[in-house]
């Protein structure tokens, strides 16, 4: 059955637990949170109350939107749980990522570090393997993701990655472009078989 824009109810946002050194990253997180809440979309995220994670969650919550945070117990003190919203505590990082996947219909990637990269690369790989067809959208604030896209291009040019990998994600430069990009990537969904990725 085709996955349409109306089928998108919950959106997972991957992003940093710090703000980075460019104020536009924080502004993008704030603006994105307001857009998600305005569209009636629930935010699913890593559960932290700090950095871009916390900024996005607070923006959705302050605008009257729904938020679900998912955090491993061992990170509770390090990332400071945002307790004003629903939070589910899990045992490890793998469980966190799987629950974020299962609770979300689409994914948005804000600027972030190695953890953000690890989360989204796994998701892109799953999409490449036809384990799911959920939209994956990079919000490329001030060209933040350009070096990452250049690395992907390099793996394509050296024939370690098939050209079809380009279909695993879409990139937009503005917050306003996020929801149309999600709608554009929506397609037939394939439920992930968790036995194939554990």
UniProtKB/TrEMBL annotation:
Protein name: Cytokinin riboside 5'-monophosphate phosphoribohydrolase
Top enzyme category: hydrolase
Gene Ontology molecular-function annotations: AMP nucleosidase activity
Phylogenetic placement of the source organism: Bacteria, Pseudomonadati, Pseudomonadota, Alphaproteobacteria, Caulobacterales
Top-rank taxon, per record: Bacteria
Reaction catalyzed: AMP + H2O = D-ribose 5-phosphate + adenine
EC nos: 3.2.2.n1
Signal peptide limits: none
Biological source species: Asticcacaulis biprosthecium C19
């Amino acid at each position: 059955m085709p996955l349409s824009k109306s089928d998108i109810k919950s959106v997972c946002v991957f992003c940093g637990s710090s703000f980075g050194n460019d104020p536009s990253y924080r502004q993008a997180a704030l603006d994105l949170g307001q857009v998600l809440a305005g569209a009636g979309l629930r935010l699913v995220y890593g559960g932290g109350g700090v950095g871009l994670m916390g900024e996005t969650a607070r923006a959705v919550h302050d605008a009257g939107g729904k938020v679900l945070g998912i955090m491993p117990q061992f990170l509770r003190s390090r990332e400071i749980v945002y307790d004003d919203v629903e939070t589910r505590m899990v045992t490890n990082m793998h469980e966190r990522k799987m629950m974020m996947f299962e609770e979300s219909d689409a994914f948005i990637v804000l600027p972030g570090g190695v953890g953000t990269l690890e989360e989204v690369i796994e998701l892109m790989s799953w999409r490449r393997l036809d384990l799911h067809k959920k939209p994956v959208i990079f919000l490329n604030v001030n060209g933040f993701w350009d070096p990452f896209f250049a690395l992907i291009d390099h793996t394509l040019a050296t024939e370690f990655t098939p050209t079809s990998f380009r279909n695993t994600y879409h990139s937009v430069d503005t917050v306003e472009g996020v929801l149309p990009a999600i709608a554009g990537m929506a397609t037939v969904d394939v439920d992930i078989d968790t036995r194939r990725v554990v």
